[in-house]
Amino acid sequence: MKKPAGKVKSTAPCGGCRNNFYNGNNDLGVSRCWSLKDARLVKRWRIGWWTTPTIPGAFVQVKTYDCHHETGRYGFSEDLPLHAVEPVRLLKEASE
Q1: Mapping DSSP to helix (H, G, I), strand (E, B) and coil, where does residue 42 land?
Q2: What is the pTM of this model?
Q3: Among 13, 16, 51, 72, which residue has the fewest nearby CB atoms (within 10 Å)?
Q4: What residues are paired with 76 via a beta bridge?
């Protein structure tokens, strides 16, 4: 028996991910990344590889999928490092 179709996840948080190529951004006929089905939307701390980690604002809180990878561009961390100075936090949402 087939499972009922669930809500289709947005690919907006996939922007910049190395696997976003598989979300229809190719000429191979592949329309969905294999990670998207099980992906969870999470908050992460992002830092550019070129950024000195001890400067104010080096860490920016973002919402993305837990499978997101931007090799050679950004690093993502679940926890804010102790050495972070004046991190840029997401605004509180009405539901939080």
Answers
A1: strand
A2: 0.80
A3: 72
A4: 46
Strands of 74-77's sheet, edge to edge? 60-65, 41-48, 74-77
- What SS3 state is found at 86? coil
Q: How many CB atoms lie within 10 A of CB 62?
A: 16
**What are the structural domain ranges in the chain?**
37-91
Nearest Cα residue to 54 out of 24, 32, 86, 77: 86
Task: Identify the burial level of 10 via C-beta atoms within 10 angstroms of its C-beta, where 0-12 means exposed, 13-18 middle and 19 or more buried.
Answer: exposed
Q: Does 5 have pLDDT greater than 80? A: no
Alpha helices in 28-89 (DSSP H): none
Q: How far is CA 3 from CA 6, 35, in A?
A: 8, 18
Which position has the token pair 């939307």?
41
Cβ neighbors of 83 (< 8 A, separation 6 or more) are: 53, 54
